[in-house]
Amino acid sequence: DVKVTQSSRYLVKRTGEKVFLECVQDMDHENMFWYRQDPGLGLRLIYFSYDVKMKEKGDIPEGYSVSREKKERFSLILESASTNQTSMYLCASSLDRAGAGNTIYFGEGSWLTVV
Amino acid sequence: GQNIDQPTEMTATEGAIVQINCTYQTSGFNGLFWYQQHAGEAPTFLSYNVLDGLEEKGRFSSFLSRSKGYSYLLLKELQMKDSASYLCAVRGEDSSYKLIFGSGTRLLVRP
Questions:
Q1: Are residues A98 and B41, on separate chains, in Cβ contact within 8 Å?
Q2: B83 near B109, Cβ under 8 Å?
């Protein structure tokens, strides 16, 4: 089974803190993604990566950065956390191929509260 | 722009059949996915359609009409554990394999 692991399930951080959300996948997937999920807004793509050291902005990249130094690990960084970044963050990965083969697999989610 | 629409909430009775609709307007189309998400958990993959027609997988079926920009997820013999959110997602025309998600439909199954 595909395993996408997010290191922290629940975090509480203060405004202005630097926050790291870590994600590791064990299926040698090329693509990795960070989404946030908010009530009524669904899942929105923050950043994605299709290869080591490669990254592309998603729909809402402002206030975030990412790092992919190794194929299996994709980190989301909030340089200076703000209260409007309180959300559930979902990491996901997929193979780099067309069709159902590139089904996205999600991690368990990280609930971040910024106070 | 890109838009995916689903009803916000639906209620159905245990043992019944329910159909959850999804309409989409995207720049290009390379497949439609349905995911199930229980409260507080990650979304899990249910089905994939890229050609018109019905795909059946046990109690769940998914239908696609590309000309109408329309899909539905059909759940038969509803069980209490089917109470969850159901997310429709479309892959557009670029080659990045990212998915565009709808806001999800929250389904409540009652006894």
A1: no
A2: yes
